[in-house]
């Protein structure tokens, strides 16, 4: 089992990173192969909007964003974490979304995913929606999505409603550890048992069949790289 963890925060010792590293530790204890990436440490050029990747199947900007997409392709699971900036994901995470072969090329087909959005105010729910849509529209299976509140530039938890942890933790670090472990356990179980979510499957089928697929087919040879990837994934033939 291989899982990719991506920290979309430029603050590597921050709250988002603390949650993600907690998940990394739990998964490694289970014998899972985990690759952890801080996007702020990678070299990623901005998307040029040329759409050449849809024809060739790869981006002409051969940097870390392209290499990370290839690693995600071969993984069983993906954990995406981002802080909330202006009620959205971070610029680093948005850059990966722009450069990654996600929605049109269906990069996450059959992969089990977790999304984490952190922030000081209600905007983290908006950031969480961006990540959840990315997973579901890209063919992924969303096993858990959490949106957590913490004061800016702090690792102190102010609320966490989605994991049902009612018992007060003695320290913030202990509570972070508890949440991370619970989410990682859930992901590990989903992958091990190949859990299915018929509602998500139906949701994606509607989006793919009536939105993405007709659009790509209208593009013809301009999107031959996309069609080739779909054939490799077994979702088009």
Question: What brief labels describe this structure?
Answer:
Rossmann fold, single chain, 8 helices, alpha/beta, five-stranded parallel β-sheet, 237 residues
Explain what this protein looks like in three dimensions.
Helix 1 (15-29) packs across helix 6. The chain starts with a strand and ends with a helix. It has one domain (2-233): Flavodoxin domain (Rossmann fold), CATH 3.40.50.360. The longest helix is centred in the C-terminal third of the chain and has 22 residues, at 198-219. A 5-stranded parallel sheet has the order 2-1-3-4-5, sandwiched between helices. It contains 8 helices and 5 strands; from the N terminus they run E-H-E-H-H-E-H-E-H-E-H-H-H. It is globular. The chain has 237 residues and is an alpha/beta fold. Strand 4 (112-119), helix 5 (123-137) and strand 5 form a beta-alpha-beta unit. It has helices at 15-29, 52-56, 64-73, 91-99, 123-137, 172-192, 198-219, 224-233; strands at residues 2-7, 33-38, 77-83, 112-119, 141-149. 45% of the residues lie in helices and 15% in strands.
Order of helices and strands: EHEHHEHEHEHHH
What is the end-to-end distance? 28 Å
Tell me the name of the CATH class: Alpha Beta
Reported for the largest beta sheet, the result is: 5 strands, parallel
How is this structure best summarized?
It contains 8 helices and 5 strands. The chain has helices at residues 15-29, 52-56, 64-73, 91-99, 123-137, 172-192, 198-219, 224-233; strands spanning 2-7, 33-38, 77-83, 112-119, 141-149.
Summarize the SSE layout with pairings.
Blueprint: E1 2-7, H1 15-29, E2 33-38, H2 52-56, H3 64-73, E3 77-83, H4 91-99, E4 112-119, H5 123-137, E5 141-149, H6 172-192, H7 198-219, H8 224-233
Parallel strand pairs: 1-2, 1-3, 3-4, 4-5
Helix pairs in contact: 1-6
